Structure formats: structure tokens, C-alpha cells
Design the sequence.
């Protein structure tokens, strides 16, 4: 086999390894989500965990802005992962883990707020990245899914809250960053 | 024009970031230098293999590249290490081969035993008549002058007789043939 081909295969294997390493934090996050659900794991969490694993792997494997976005997205999604539990548990919603028992407005506000925090963080960092759009899209998607690991208990309202929060706060920052780059 | 160290550094950083477009330019930029280094450092005949393995290792370990370091130095350090590994492997193989050859040689015990056997055979042979010894020697060496004037059938019969006497003499001295 030609040396270039051997080297290219070695390079691709290295990228796959990075992809796996990028998805590795899920080993901690999924059990954490289960703990936040008080030992139970709703069936809706599994697809989100799989989607998050897939997107983390793809980000790590693809590289560039996508790869840099992965750890930021995970960190930005952590408040969304923890806050609903901390805020809603005293109200008695989360322990029941029953969407019918949850006040959708409260959930939307809490998850949206957590999403806003994540979005601002992502937006600021994306504006500084070499690939701001890729960074913002990747980090926002990962943050949404990370937060959704617990927010999904509240149903689509929670996910929508996270998504809206990230999107609303990321978009202006990305646009400002892109404009600043264009003016340079 | 060959790319400079700064360009190679930028290419390696891009490749390490997952930019597939940087692979070919980086490969083309560093391959001649790696080949040249391995041709000088690796044992004769192993330079090309060492260079190829070094390139594979560079791209396998690309994620470990520290951006603060010089890319070319990092790549050549991997190539130099690979050459050292090849040289060490070659030396170890040579040592193993030498060890096998030493094992293949006759051990002192075997040598002493063989000498004793030859001495015993010579002593037994010495107990035979001169004609019998001459016949056996002629058969063993295949010397045609020793058989001159003797018909082949006669020589065969003499040899059979001489060997029978030798066997009997051996048996009387040492028991089994």
C-alpha cells in the first residue's frame, strides 16, 4: 500500500478516536441525568442520549469549529441539565416525573433561562472562533441536547425552551461577531 | 517552492484540527525531509521502511501535537525515534541470531563424547589385521588406488568380512554395537 494511503488511513483512525473521546463525557452525563431523575430513566431520555452521543462523535470526528464547539456545548448545557431539577424539585414537579403534573409555563421559563445562559456563553465564544457559524450551530445543538437530558421530562416545552434560549441569544452574538470580522 | 517551517506548522495545526484539506499539502511538505532523515539515520536498507512508518506515526499521533512546539521538529523527532527503534530491532535480531548460532554449535560435553567415541573406534580398528583396516579405510575414503587390482566382488567380500570382525571386536569391548 502506498505510504500516502497508509498515512491517510492512520489520520482517519486518529479522527475517529478523537470522535470517541469527544463523546466520552456522556459516560458521566447520562448517569448524572439518571440521578437527577431520582434513579429512574424515562424512555424519552435514551433517544436524546443517543442523539447527543452521535452529534458529539460527529463533531469530534469532523474537527474544525465543530470539534471546538463540543466541550463548550456540553458545559453550556450543564445549567440546563441541573437547574430544572433544582428549581422544580421544591415545587414537587420533577420527582413526580409526570408531564401532566408540570406547570409548562414555569418549566418553559426555567429551561428558557438556562438556555439563555448557555446561548450567551456560546455566542461570545463563537464570535471569537475561526469558524463562528459552525461553532455556534454545533455548540447550540449539543447544549440543547445536554440540557434536554433532564428537561425532556417536562416534554417538548422544555426542549423548546432550551432551543429558543440558545437560538435567540446565540444569533445576535454570531451576527455581531461576523460583522466585526467583515469590517476588519 | 518548498513550504517553510511556518507553513508546515500552519498545515499541521489545520490537519490536527480535522481539516482534511491540509493532509495532502502537509504530506508533500514533510515526506522528503522524513525520507532524507531516515535514509541517514536508519540502518542501510531500512531507511524507506522507517520513513514510511514514521509518516504513519505522525498522522496517528496528530492529535497529540502541541501547538506551542515547532511542527517540523515534532515530525522529525518522531522520525528519528522510529529510526532508533528500527536500529534497536535490527541489533536485537542480530543478537538473537548469534544466540541461535551459538546454540547450534557443538557443546563441550558433546565434543568430549564424540572424541571418546572416535578413540574407541580407532582402538577397535587397531585390533584388526592390516588387510582388514586397509579394506575398511578404502571403503570409507573411496580411494580407487587402494582397490587397484582387486575385483569389485572380491573387495565387497573382504569388506563384509572386515566389518563383521570390527563389529565382533566392538561387541567384545563395549557390549552393544
Sequence:
Amino acid at each position: 500500500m502506498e505510504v500516502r494511503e497508509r498515512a491517510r488511513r492512520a489520520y482517519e483512525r486518529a479522527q475517529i478516536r478523537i470522535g470517541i473521546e469527544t463523546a466520552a463525557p456522556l459516560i458521566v452525563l447520562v448517569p448524572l441525568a439518571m440521578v437527577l431523575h431520582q434513579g429512574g430513566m424515562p424512555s424519552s431520555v435514551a433517544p436524546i442520549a443517543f442523539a447527543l452521543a452521535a452529534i458529539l462523535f460527529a463533531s469530534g470526528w469532523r474537527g474544525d469549529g465543530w470539534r471546538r464547539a463540543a466541550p463548550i456545548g456540553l458545559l453550556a448545557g450543564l445549567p440546563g441539565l441541573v437547574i430544572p431539577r433544582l428549581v422544580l424539585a421544591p415545587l414537587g414537579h420533577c420527582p413526580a416525573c409526570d408531564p401532566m403534573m408540570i406547570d409548562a409555563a414555569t418549566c418553559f421559563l426555567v429551561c428558557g433561562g438556562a438556555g439563555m445562559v448557555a446561548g450567551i456563553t456560546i455566542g461570545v465564544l463563537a464570535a471569537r472562533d475561526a469558524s463562528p457559524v459552525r461553532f455556534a450551530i454545533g455548540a447550540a445543538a449539543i447544549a440543547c441536547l445536554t440540557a434536554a437530558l433532564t428537561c425532556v421530562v417536562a416534554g417538548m416545552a422544555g426542549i423548546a425552551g432550551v432551543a429558543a434560549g440558545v437560538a435567540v441569544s446565540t444569533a445576535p452574538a454570531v451576527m455581531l461577531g461576523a460583522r466585526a470580522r467583515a469590517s476588519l | 517552492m518548498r513550504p517553510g517551517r511556518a507553513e508546515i506548522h500552519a498545515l499541521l495545526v489545520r490537519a490536527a484540527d480535522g481539516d482534511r484539506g491540509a493532509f495532502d499539502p502537509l504530506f508533500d511538505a514533510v515526506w522528503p525531509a522524513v525520507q532524507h532523515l531516515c535514509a541517514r539515520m536508519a540502518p542501510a536498507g531500512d531507511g524507506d521502511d522507517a520513513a514510511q512508518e514514521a509518516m504513519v506515526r505522525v498522522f496517528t499521533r496528530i492529535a497529540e501535537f502541541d501547538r506551542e512546539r515547532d511542527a517540523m521538529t515534532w515530525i522529525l523527532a518522531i522520525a528519528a525515534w522510529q529510526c532508533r527503534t528500527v536500529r534497536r530491532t535490527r541489533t536485537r535480531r542480530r543478537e538473537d541470531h548469534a544466540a541461535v548460532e551459538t546454540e547450534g554449535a557443538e557443546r563441550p560435553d558433546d565434543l568430549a563424547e564424540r572424541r571418546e567415541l572416535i578413540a574407541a573406534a580407532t582402538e577397535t580398528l587397531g585390533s584388526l589385521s592390516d588387510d582388514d583396516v586397509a579394506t575398511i579405510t578404502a571403503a570409507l575414503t573411496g580411494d580407487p588406488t587402494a582397490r587397484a587390482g582387486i575385483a569389485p566382488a572380491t573387495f565387497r567380500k573382504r569388506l563384509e568380512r572386515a566389518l563383521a570382525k570390527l563389529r565382533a571386536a566392538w561387541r567384545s569391548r563395549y557390549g552393544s554395537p
The first helix of chain B runs from residue 5 to 16.
